[in-house]
Design goal:
2 domains, alpha/beta, 13 helices, TIM Barrel, binds zinc ion, Urease, subunit C, domain 1
Length: 434
């Protein structure tokens, strides 16, 4: 008797749409009208190729006419704001005070945090988001609940305890030593958990809510464990001015993060609307990335981020929903808002460029560009199946509907590392073919 063979690869047949490798800042995609996606027992893609009868021996899940594509990646989302989407209570600083801080204080209750964490992961998966980079609250218990929910949902997630030791309500304020001790414990419990699907990120809310000492201690912890750093920068002029009043030793906003050691090659800075040329140059030099959150920027009236400033310096740009200032977990809403944002500045982005931005481009920005972001052999099988109206026949029409008419394109399956994380039954069930 021979040893039991490893679990046979799983194969999926459908149309296929993926960014071309190494097109992270571009708009080049590969479209196959009839393709086979083969996933190995290790969760990696063995092959993504045109379907050929008889070429694959084994069961095939036939998902035609759905389109297989990489799962979306949300590089900036706030878990404790899940329930306050649409709170139009003012511009950034007023909105934080009136809508965000009171809600985030509720996450001191583990039961409440667990409830919302379940909603959060379900909404991500249902939107076709297979990877998320997340701000938790400043509470360790809520952050445990978030990681636990991500683990149970099978999603890929990078998340961090939101650091705040000043300029915030007492209920959210955690002094430096306590916060760093909590973060250190969370690194031990969660960094690399779920077979490496989960990572801990150093997460100062923004420089205004953090003392210099807290940011310096957080930077050391990031360095010790090579952690991703995420924060906000230059979202509104008022925030920028308040930040420099708070940290007068810095020459500009980017310099605050730079001097405390947070401006690393693994730093992910959300917004970046009101940066000067010097700040952009420094970002590029430090190889930090920016997260474009256009839907949030429209909602809070924060301004228009100039993608051209990033592209001119080869700064990597990811896309973020920024829920709850962003109005939807669906990254297609963010793609559509990114189009509007560019249009306001006289630039017209192609739907293919927006699709690439939300997949391979964002994977690159968060340092996972060799692992996920496109469907090609060797990458981990994070993918979704999207059902479009029957009359849409070609690549251009599919992209137009994907980006601008998401209500016509249902995400009915999502997989992370080859394992199902979302299933929505549609009218006609898929059938198996031998
Ligand atoms: Zn944010």
């Amino acid at each position: 008797m021979s040893a039991r063979p490893p679990e046979s690869p799983r194969a999926y047949r459908g149309r296929l749409l993926t960014p071309l490798a190494a097109s992270s800042n571009g708009d080049r995609v590969r479209y196959l009208d009839d393709a086979l996606l083969v996933v190995g027992s290790d969760g990696r893609i063995v092959e993504a190729a045109p379907f050929a009868p008889g070429a694959f021996r084994g069961p095939v899940l036939d998902l035609r006419p759905s389109v297989l594509m990489p799962g979306f990646i949300d590089a900036h989302v706030h878990f404790p704001q899940t329930r306050i989407i649409g709170s139009a209570s003012g511009s950034l600083l007023d909105w934080l005070e009136r809508s965000v801080f009171p809600e985030e204080a509720r996450f001191r209750d583990d039961g409440y945090a667990a409830l919302v964490a379940g909603e959060f992961t379900a909404r991500l998966a249902a939107s076709g988001t297979t990877t998320c980079v997340v701000f938790s609250s400043s509470c360790a218990g809520a952050t445990d609940q978030l990681f636990d929910a991500l683990l149970r949902a099978g999603l890929r997630g990078i998340a961090g305890l939101t650091l705040m030791d000043q300029n915030c309500p007492e209920a959210l304020c955690v002094p430096r030593d306590d916060a760093i001790a909590m973060a250190r414990d969370l690194v031990q419990r969660w960094h690399g958990a779920g077979g490496g699907l989960l990572e801990f990120a150093i997460t100062p809310r923004f420089a205004l809510s953090c003392s210099r000492g807290l940011m310096e201690a957080a930077a050391l912890l990031a360095h010790d464990h090579d952690l991703l750093v995420q924060t906000h920068v230059a979202e509104t002029p008022a925030e920028g001015e308040a930040t420099l009043r708070e940290h007068p030793w810095a020459r500009d906003y980017i310099d605050v993060y730079d001097r405390v050691g947070l401006l690393t090659g693994r730093a992910l800075l959300a917004h970046g609307i009101h940066l000067t040329p010097r700040e952009w140059d420094r970002l590029a030099e430090a190889r930090s990335s920016v997260v474009h959150c256009p839907d949030s920027n429209f909602f809070l009236g924060s301004g228009r981020m100039r993608l051209a400033d990033a592209r001119a310096r080869a700064v990597s740009v990811g896309l973020g929903s920024d829920v709850g200032a962003g109005r939807s977990f669906d990254m297609r809403r963010s793609m559509s808002s990114a189009f509007d944002n560019a249009l306001c500045l006289g630039d017209r982005l192609l739907p293919s460029a927006l699709f690439v931005m939300a997949t391979q481009g964002t994977a690159d920005a968060i340092g996972l560009g060799l692992v996920i972001g496109s469907l090609e052999a060797g990458k981990e099988a994070d993918f979704i199946a999207v059902r479009f109206p029957e009359h849409l026949l070609g690549e251009a029409e599919l992209l137009n509907h994907l980006v601008f008419a998401p209500e016509t394109a249902a995400v009915h399956r999502a997989f992370v590392r080859g394992r199902p994380v979302h299933l929505r039954r549609l009218g006609a069930p898929p059938h198996h073919s031998p």
